[in-house]
Amino acid sequence: EQETVTGLFSKDCILPCLFPYGNDEVIYWKKGVKNVHSYYYQRDQLERQDPDYRHRTHLFHENIPGGNASLKLSNLTLTDEGLYSCYVGTQQTKTEVEVMLHVRVSSYYALEYQTTDTKRVLKCHAFHTYPAPRISWVQGNTSIQETDREEARDGVLYSLRSDLSIANTADTYYCHIHLPYEEWVLQLSISDQLSNVEGNSTAIPCEYNSNIENTEGFSVVWTFNRNAVSSVLASFNGTSHSYQPRVQINQNNFSLILHDLTPNDSGEYLCNISTPRYAKLTVRTLQV
C-alpha cells in the first residue's frame, strides 16, 4: 500500500506506518538505499543512519506497542521529497508500507504600483519560491517584455521582482507568475478619472469578479497615492476596517465611500482585491 503526504518546507511532518499488533518489533525506515531510521531491541538504532537525517527523525515509542511505527521528520528540506519505505517485522507478521512525500514551499506574491510625475511602474514580486519562478507580462492581449528585474536567493529559495513601465493607461496589464505546481495571475487596470466637488460624498468603485468573493483568503485593501506618498485607507478580509476618518468600505461591492470631500482628497485611489492565486489592482484618479 502507498500513502501520500505533503509537507511544508522547513516544517515538520509525519510519515504514517501502521502494523498489526505483535512482539519484538523491528522497524526500518528507508528512502532508496538511505537508512532513515532503525528501531529494534526496543530502542532506536541510529549508528547507520544516513547523515542527511541526523537529529531530524523521531518514532513515537509509546505508540509502537499499539501498532504505530509512524515517523516524524523535522525541518523538511527539498531533497527530502521522494518515496519512503517502512518495514515492520514482529514475531507474528511482516508489514511494508510506502509513503510518497511531497515538499511544498510557502510562496507568496505582491503587486506594487508606483507613480511619479513622469511615469507609472508596476512591480510584480514572487517571494520564497522553488524552483525560480518565471514571470511573463501581457498588455491587453499582447505579450510584452519587462523593463527591469531583480532576483535574490535565500538558501535554496528564490525571490524575484519584475518591473514594467506602463505606457498606455487604457489597456489592462497582466503579470503571470509561473511555478511548477501553480500559476498566479496579477492584474492592473487604470480606470477613468472621477470628479466631484468639495463637501460632497462619493463612492469610488472597485472592479472585481464576484465568483472570487467566497474564496478562502479573499481580501480587499484600499490605498491612496498623492505626491508619491501612499497611505492605507481601509481593508476588508471578512470584516471591514477603516484607518482614516471619513472613509468606509461598502461591503456589498467593496467600493470606497468618502465623506465631506476636500481638495486634499484629490489623487489616485488603488483597490487591491486578492486571493491566494489571483490579484486585481484597479487605479482611479479623483479630482475634487
Helix/strand layout:
Elements: E1 2-8, E2 13-15, E3 26-31, E4 34-40, E5 43-44, E6 57-59, E7 71-73, E8 82-89, E9 94-104, E10 108-115, E11 120-129, E12 134-139, E13 142-144, E14 148-154, E15 157-166, E16 172-178, E17 183-190, E18 194-195, E19 202-204, E20 219-226, E21 229-236, E22 240-242, E23 247-249, E24 256-258, E25 267-275, E26 278-287
Parallel strand pairs: 1-9, 17-26, 18-26
Antiparallel strand pairs: 2-7, 3-4, 3-8, 4-5, 6-7, 8-9, 10-11, 11-15, 12-13, 12-16, 14-15, 16-17, 19-24, 20-21, 20-25, 21-22, 23-24, 25-26
Structure description:
It is a single chain. By secondary structure, the chain is mainly β. It has 3 domains: 2-104, Sandwich (Immunoglobulin-like), CATH 2.60.40.10; 106-190, Immunoglobulin-like, CATH 2.60.40.10; 191-288, Immunoglobulin-like (Sandwich), CATH 2.60.40.10. Helix content is 0%, strand content 55%. It contains no helices and 26 strands. The strands form 5 sheets. Strands 12, 13, 16, 17, 18, 20, 21, 22, 25 and 26 form a 10-stranded mixed sheet that branches. Strands 1-9-8-3-4-5 form a 6-stranded mixed sheet, with no helix packed on it. A hairpin with a 2-residue loop joins strand 20 (219-226) and strand 21 (229-236). It starts with a strand and ends with a strand.
